[in-house]
From TrEMBL:
Keyword Coiled coil: no
Protein name, as recorded: UDP-N-acetylenolpyruvoylglucosamine reductase
Domain FAD-binding PCMH-type: 27-192
Region entry Disordered, spans: 207-228
Pathway membership: Cell wall biogenesis; peptidoglycan biosynthesis
Biological source species: Novosphingobium aerophilum
Lineage: Bacteria, Pseudomonadati, Pseudomonadota, Alphaproteobacteria, Sphingomonadales
Matching InterPro entries: FAD-bd_PCMH, FAD-bd_PCMH-like_sf, FAD-bd_PCMH_sub1, FAD-bd_PCMH_sub2, MurB, MurB_C, MurB_C_sf, Oxid_FAD_bind_N
Length: 298
């Protein structure tokens, strides 16, 4: 148990047995053994430095790209609050963004500063920390194209700044150190007119609204697009549109989205995803890879 040895003192908020279902988009899953909401980066650094190295640590953003299994998450879940949600222009083309800032806030701040090229972040339901870790992307843009560097707190508690080259980005993947937490990042765009930037953000927003089940309890895009293929088309061809398992369902609107129709368990959602993967493999021979993270104990 984490109480032996005792946890380090904190200035932020530390909660035992904290329910995670309310904090994730699927509204399902178990509790965190400990949920830590640090007051600032120094608080997080000191906590991790004093924490038993055997205790696992994971970061939680907006909870959009995540299945928290029903048995909960052992160790410490770190959630970055308002102190990490600030975004400010540091020069005419560069934004300094807290790890807890949303894509909407980043893209809106870029618009106000006349910085184009970050509009795609408007469409990703997550925070800067998650974008950086997963090389988030949509509508023709990817984080690797706009990131300069990021500030992270390593599991040891050491703060480091990593340039984009050190992350070795590929599609929806980075080599960010295991259990490291992104507390800030610098994004660089290009000169643009606020009205044109807003028009592009509106186009992206309307496209998402028309094609994705945004008003449902979902986790966002479920599977990565295989090379040369679109995951939703493979799922559709395998006859999985509307497929249901307990309270979990493949969206009728967009087949690369799973939805919780009411009281689905995380086990049902994950099992449905695995059944979709099985059917796609049988129908097309393609092995779909999860894009949604699955964490915790069954």
């Amino acid at each position: 148990m984490l109480t032996a040895p005792p946890l380090p003192q904190v200035r932020g908020k530390l909660t035992a047995d904290a329910p995670l279902a309310p904090l994730v988009w699927f509204k399902a899953g178990g509790a965190a053994q400990w949920l830590f909401e640090p007051q600032d980066a120094d608080d997080l650094s000191a906590f991790l430095r004093g924490l038993d190295p055997a205790v696992p640590v994971m970061a939680l953003g907006l909870g959009s790209n995540l299945i928290v299994r029903d048995g909960g998450v052992p160790g410490v879940v770190v959630r970055l609050g308002k102190a990490f949600a600030k975004v400010a222009a540091v020069d005419p083309l560069t934004l300094d963004c807290g790890g807890g800032a949303s894509g909407i806030l980043v893209s809106s701040t870029a618009r106000d500063a006349g910085i184009a090229g970050l509009e795609f972040l408007r469409s990703i339901p997550g925070t800067v920390g998650g974008f950086v870790r997963m090389n988030g992307g949509a509508y023709g843009g990817e984080v690797k194209d706009v990131l300069i560097d990021c500030d992270v707190i390593l599991r040891s508690g050491e703060p480091v700044t990593l340039p984009v080259a050190d992350l070795h980005y590929t599609y929806r993947h980075s080599e960010l150190p295991e259990q490291a937490i992104v507390v800030a990042a610098r994004f660089r765009g290009r000169p643009g007119e606020p009205a044109a930037i807003q028009a592009e953000m509106d186009r992206i927003s309307a496209s998402r609204e028309a094609s994705q089940p945004l008003r449902s309890k979902t986790g966002g895009s479920t599977f990565k697009n295989p090379p040369g293929e679109k995951a939703w088309e493979l799922v559709d061809r395998a006859g999985c549109r509307g497929l249901q398992l307990g309270g979990a369902q493949v969206s009728e609107k967009h087949t690369n989205f799973l939805i919780n129709t009411g009281e689905a368990t995380s086990a049902e959602i994950e099992a449905l995803g695995d059944e979709v993967r099985r059917r796609v493999k049988a129908q097309s021979g393609v092995e779909l890879e999860w894009e949604i993270q699955r964490v915790g104990r069954p």
